[in-house]
Amino acid sequence: MLISLGAVSARAADLGTECCADLESRIAELEATVARKGNRRVTLEVSGLINQALLGWDDEAESNVYVVTNDNARTRLRFVGAGNITSDWQAGYRLELGIRTANSKVVNQLRTFGLRDDTLDIRDSVWFLKSKRYGTLFVGSTFPSFTNIADSNVTQTDWFAKYGAVENSGLSMFLRSARNGALSRTLTWRRIVGAGGDQPGETQRGFEQIKYVSPAWNGFTAAATLVVDDFWDATLRYRGEIAGLDIAAGIGYLDLVPGSRSVGVCALNRFVNSGDASKCRQASGSVSVRHEATGMFLNLGFGLTIEGVLEDTRRFVNTGVDDGELFWSGQVGLERKINALGKSTIYGELYLYNGGAPTGIPVLPGDPLNPTGLGFWTVWQSDMDVIGGGFAQGIDAAAMIVYLSYRHVSGDVTLRQLQGLAATGPIAGAPIDDLDLVLSGAIINF
Hints:
It is a single chain. The chain is mainly beta. The protein has 2 domains: 1-34; 45-74 and 101-116 and 147-445, Porin (Beta Barrel). It contains 2 helices and 20 strands. The protein has helices spanning 2-33, 189-192; strands at 45-58, 63-69, 76-84, 89-100, 119-131, 135-141, 174-176, 183-188, 208-213, 220-227, 231-242, 245-256, 280-291, 296-307, 324-337, 343-355, 377-395, 400-417, 427-429, 435-445. The strands form 2 sheets. Strands 1-3-4-5-6-9-10-11-12-13-14-15-16-17-18-20 form a 16-stranded antiparallel beta barrel. A two-stranded antiparallel sheet has the order 7-8. It is globular and about 85 Å long. It starts with a helix and ends with a strand.
């Protein structure tokens, strides 16, 4: 009897040893395949998104289809973490890398081969101190508070069709002359819309900055940014629900500091020396409202840029050129869950832009848009209208949105001939063909 009990005990011990050894081996194997943190005090969260699409275009003389990264919400990888200092104070960090492969904002008719950019850009590299009572202070390279202030959005269109930043959907396409159908090698659609290619509702990013964001109060949040030696901004946003309406809204102001090195906020700082860069300023705002019961929604936005630097340059001195750029934009549609997959969205949109001399890029001799084919000309007045619509289907089980959007782009360009360094020569129109764009793809968050 004692011998039997001893044998059973020995076998149990052997099984226990084998079991634990196997378990420890499996744990070691698992640890070797997972990401590790440097310490146990600060959290680490890895997330991001993939947003790839097909971009089809037709400029009335040529058409094609590209595989692109949708720059409305570019593919990215994000690392975020924080550690609690006290019950009120927290310190943390955010590192986000954008991935540019055939960026939908920069492809054009001439880039039919070698479209891949294959570069990483630093979207965020900041540390922060956060207080529930006093707000959050950010230090590093990130987006100013003014960013996307003209694109408040409570619907799925925010991921693939920003209504205040239409340049993201294929507007690096070169203009095509309506006179002879020839392709300009100088001007693109987004270069006749000012601020160096950015919409008047957008701002610069990536520069070293200090940003403050207040705690939320009844849905309102205030923020301000100082980008050293460049510009400062201030914004007020709202996010909440009122009487069954889901609402997001924002309004902001931006001002360049004297001697700014920015090249994205006011275009002419890139090309000419300004006597008073502080005259360059922006004001933008937007509101997005969705009725929860019916799913009907309305998005409205505007952006105004005043480039007072035009008054202080030899190119435009005493010429009377319009120094303002203004756009109005909006989307109207229906978003609700009509199937088990997720929310369905259908919408129409309109974007209206009117600008003066938004770009310092000259129209060279021989360019199809050059009215005489001789001499150097500059953009004197530009207008662009975009009308479109689309559909999106959310797939909640895969954190996915499948989308299709269409935009018809039309516009007018007026040029003035440069005489020396001043735009004081003849004024002439440069008629351009329309552009059709179709963007269809999917975004997956992880």
